[in-house]
Amino acid sequence: MSATQHVTDVRVGANGRMVLPLSVRKAMGLSGEARVIITVEGDEVRLSPIKHVVSRLQSLYREHASNDAGSEAFLEERREDEGKPA
Fold this sequence. Notes:
By secondary structure, the chain is of the alpha+beta class.
C-alpha cells in the first residue's frame, strides 16, 4: 500500500447512505458540503472531488490544445473534412 492510500471500512445503511469519515474527507481535500464524481469499475468504486477532476481536465486541455480557434472555425474545418462548401 502506498503512502497516499487510505483504507477504512464504512457502513452503508439500508437506504444506501454512508458517511465518509473525517480522515477520508481530509485526505480528499473535502470540507463542508462537497460534490464528488463516482466512478464504478467492475466491483470497485472511486470517489473523486469534482474540483480535482475539473483541474485535471483543464490541465489536459492546456497541454493538448494546439490553437484557440472559435467554434465557427471548428465547424468550417469539419465541413471541409466532409467536402462540403464552407
